[in-house]
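I am still getting used to backbone structure tokens and would like to learn alongside you. Label the sequence line and the structure token line clearly, so we can match residues to local backbone shapes. Go ahead whenever you are ready, and we will take it from there:
>
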Amino acid sequence: MSNLAPIHAAATPAPAISAWPDVSDLYRRFEVLVKQPMRPIRPEAMQRVMRWFDERCQGSKRLAEEAKAVIPGGVQHNLAFNHPFPLAIAQAQGAHMTDVDGNRYIDFLQAGGPTLLGSNHPAVRLKVNEVLDACGPATGLLHEYEVKLAELVCRSMPGVEMLRLLGSGTEAVMGAVRLARACTKRKWIIKIGGAYHGWSDQLVYGMRLPGTGRMEAVGIPRGATGHTQECHPNDLDALRRKLQLNRLRGGTAAVLLEPLGPESGTRPVQRDYNAQVRALCDEFGALLIFDEVVTGFRLGMGGAQAYFGVTPDLTVLGKCLTGGYPMAGAIGGRRDVMMLLVGGIGTTARRAFVGGTLSANPLSCVAGYHALLEAQRTDAAGAAGRAGDRLCKGLAGIIERRGLPYVTYNMGSIVHLQTSGVLLLDTSNVFKLLRVKDEARRRKHMMEEMGAAYTAHGLITLAGSRIYTSLADTDDVIDDALNRFDDVFKLV
């Protein structure tokens, strides 16, 4: 397309992850955390936290109660499940957001990860408004920004030769699994247990905790997960055994994983794990699918595949792809595989059918293109990673000084703060799995209370255990946050 603006590569940025954590040491610390009694907020301190919500968040509380009458449970999406009730946000800008009651927070949720530039970035908003003024959010026909965005992603990510835009990460995973089966003419899908790959029927399996299979598959027929399997992260021997077994019954279509480890590295994988999974996929003729919904482009323009030097056959994108604007999802991959997604009404070519009326709309594509250009220009992933390093180092110092068993570590701008260890419980055999539900319930409640205490001290996190930093998190913002975390840990 001759009128497309050239993409100017910036100077080679520093890696968004300054150092891969010592995974073996982390698992030893995880084991210590979950084997000792929990260290929650003291009851009298928790009462003060609850009073803060009653006194300072009356507008949010009122809206939450009204929502319950017309919305199941009062929330539309999982990120809003905050204890004791969801906050109603009125403004979000950069590193901060403000609720309807005027309370201001440091925003470490960042919409669940997509706003790498910080919330509501003005440069992106300007370009979005230009397109909205010109043609509105959707036309149903081709728009130049579809091509611009696809071209930019293909130039940036090693494993993406072609790109098909969809409506969400869930849709993209569904499409990638269908595409893998169409390409290989095989049925079995092996996921790494504990990972969340959206809520499609076939992948509500082994979620949150590895080894739990269909524990959360309420309303899903057994046949829907009949060809879904899971392996514990880092267990290459188990993965090989499943690949060998599947070869005797038709073969494995794909291995699906989060390259940092399940739940954005909540259960981190060894540094060479992805390369070894790649080798196994090659040996057994299975496709390798990277779920980069979180890591692309939070780990840099090339995503986790560039960081690890491992090229998947298919890549699933979401979240950061459109910089926080809606309809963020895509499948990218090898040209020969991607050509099975050729669209068109009534085509007679053999294809894997995907659709979506609002996919690749002008609003999403202009937002994605300019958000990624701005991220590239500013090295947002590197800056956010350095903020994550500073925050993690500070948190580790506070934890050590206060003698707490908590575990903190980071992969660049994805910072983990494990206080209850609810997602770290041992599910390695059936006897341990039987005891997990009750233990998980107690530890989940502690995590919710920690999250509430963070909120009452002006900090918004993801479920009280995950923190996303952004380009907007200056040293002053991080230092302010560390003082607030220290105030919370005084209450333990």
Q: What stands out?
A: The longest helix spans residues 430-456. The domain at 122-377 is CATH 3.40.640.10 (Aspartate Aminotransferase; domain 2).
